Amino acid sequence: MKKTLLFIAALITGMLQVSAQNNQAQLTVHINEGQNTISKHIYGHFSEHLGRCIYGGIWVGEDSKVPNIQGYRKDVFDALKHLDIPNLRWPGGCFADEYHWKDGIGPRADRPEMVNTHWGGVVEDNSFGTHEFLEFCKLLETEPVICGNVGSGSVEEMSDWVEYINFDGKSPMADLRRANGKEEAWGLKYWGVGNESWGCGGNMTPEYYANEYRRYATFARNYGNNRLFKIAGGANSWDLKWTETLMKNIPNRMMDGISLHYYTVPNTWSQKGSATQFDEKDYFVTLKKAGEMDDLVSQHSTIMDQYDKDKRIALVVDEWGTWYDVEPGTNPGFLYQQNSIRDALTAGLTLNIFNNHADRVKMANIAQTVNVLQAVILTDDTRMILTPTYHVFDLYQPHKEAKSLPYHLQSPEYSMEGDHLSSVSVSCSKSEDGTINITLVNIDPKNAIQLSCALDGGEVNKVTGKVITSSNIADHNTFEEPNKVGIKEFTNLKVTKGKIEATLPSKSVVLLQIK
Ligand code: AHR
Question: Does the pTM exceed 0.85?
Answer without folding.
Answer: yes
